[in-house]
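TL;DR need structure tokens for one chain.
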Amino acid sequence: MKMRTKPQIFISLILLVALFWVLFSFSQSYIIERDAKYDISQLATRVALDLEMLPVAEPLFNYSGDQQKVTKYIQEINDMLKANNSRVSLLDISSAEPLQNSAEKDVLILEAAHKKTAITYSVNKAHNAISYCIPILFACIAWFMYLRAYTFNSQNKVVPATKVEAEKPKLVLNLNTKCIYLSTNQSQKIQLANKPLCFYIALVEFCDGNSDIILNPNKDVPEELISIANRYFERLTVLGHTVRKKPNFSNSLEKTLSEIRAALDETFTEHPELKSKYYPPKAYGEGSRSKLHSYGLPDICFEDVEVIGR
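>> reply
TL;DR here they are.
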């Protein structure tokens, strides 16, 4: 998975801020409308209860009323609404046509048996600009968490592959016990004689640096390969194993390779797909085809095996 470019990361932040901004704006408008409806309902109930005591002018009955008391009552109501942090303001109470000098004014009609009273009010629907820091803050937090989760997922897609590679079975060649086994299954150890064990370790080391050399069984074993095998045989002596005279690694090559192949067949029983890298190829066919045969290990490197006691 490729890491996103800086413009893409910046655009994702802008989109996230815009999304949170719009959602916050809609929620603010909804809350304002909801609270305003509740306050208007409370206002209408309060005015309806006090209406009989209010000297509201009634032109139809030639009653001039007492506008000063009505104004004072309106001020008291507004003080109460303000104390409750209401966005509703009472503008006028009249029995005549309501005032229409502002587009923001709204009218509520209270109907009684013998008269109608108009309550003129206004609702402050303006949003608090400072409160819009909240959606920006939440958008930044969500964006940061998204980037962190994205980075974590990207790392997780790489780590398992590395872990699987680390747990891949490795062939162990143990000079202390003169046996071979897989690192993932140490209970299944295959015993190997001195000569094939030393020759095989030498073959791995030789092929690691000479993968292009053809090791034909019909030709002499390279001196460098024999020298390495002798070195490992001497190591067996140092480790205290009872050994006879130093073997001739040039003699009985096919028998030595057969013993190595047999041991590898048993070792890789549960992982046959891994055997080809470690397995000295057999010769098939006769004549010219056998002349091209090589028992070398072209795909192996010394890190593919673990030699204990070297």
